[in-house]
Amino acid sequence: MKIRSIVLAALIGISGMASFGASAAPADLKTVAAIHKNKATLAGQKISAQGKVVKVNNGIMGRNFVHVQDGTGDANSNNLIVTSKQTANVGDQVTISGLVTVNRDFGSGYNYPLLIEEASITAKK
Q1: CA angle at residue 90 from 86 to 96, to 5 degrees?
Q2: Is 8 within a domain?
Q3: Which residue of 4, 60, 75, 116 could cross-link 82, Cys pair, CB 3.0 to 4.6 Å?
Q4: Residue 86's domain spans which residues?
Q5: Distance separating alpha carbons of residues 23 and 91, to the nearest angstrom
Q6: Cβ burial 59-90 (10 Å sphere, 16+ → b, else e)
Q7: Using CA atoms, how far apart are residues 55 and 71, in angstroms rounded to an integer?
Q8: Is 98 exposed, middle or buried (0-12, 13-18, 19+ CB in 10 A)?
Q9: Residue 51 domain-assigned?
Q10: In this structure, what CATH number is given to the domain that contains residue 82?
């Protein structure tokens, strides 16, 4: 009887940890290349992706511009530009979640075929 209780407690503990792990990371992560490839159908939708921060420009037009790469894509599709009130440091591994925006024109020559806007940025520890 005591062994059965221990096994049951272990199963409950493992089950609880598994559900925590599943909820800790977004279930529908997309690659940078896939976001570029499907940007027209993803426009207006919230997406999540992971990658490494390769460039940061803070405080431009009331937002931070964070460039994220995950090793997918080619020279034209390997970089996501993310706008956010949050920021990160170059070299950080991050998870981002935000709205896909296509053909965003800020004027003065600042035109972006793809942006992830209003994003949350979470650095991995």
Answers
A1: 45
A2: no
A3: 116
A4: 28-123
A5: 25
A6: eeeebbbbbbebebbeeebbbbbbbbeebbee
A7: 15
A8: buried
A9: yes
A10: 2.40.50.140
* Token digits of residue 62: 């009331």
61's tokens: 């037009």
In which element (H, E) is residue 107 found?
none
Distance (Å, rounded) from C-alpha 39 to C-alpha 116?
10
Q: What is the pLDDT of residues 38-53, one digit of tens each?
A: 999 999 999 999 999 9
Kindly report, residue by residue over 61-115, the tens digit of the pLDDT. 999 999 999 999 999 999 999 999 999 999 999 999 999 999 999 998 889 999 9
Distance in angstroms (rounded) separating the CA atoms of residues 84 and 123: 13
When divided into structural domains, the chain yields a total of: 1
Token digits of residue 8: 């049951």
Amino acid at residue number 58: N
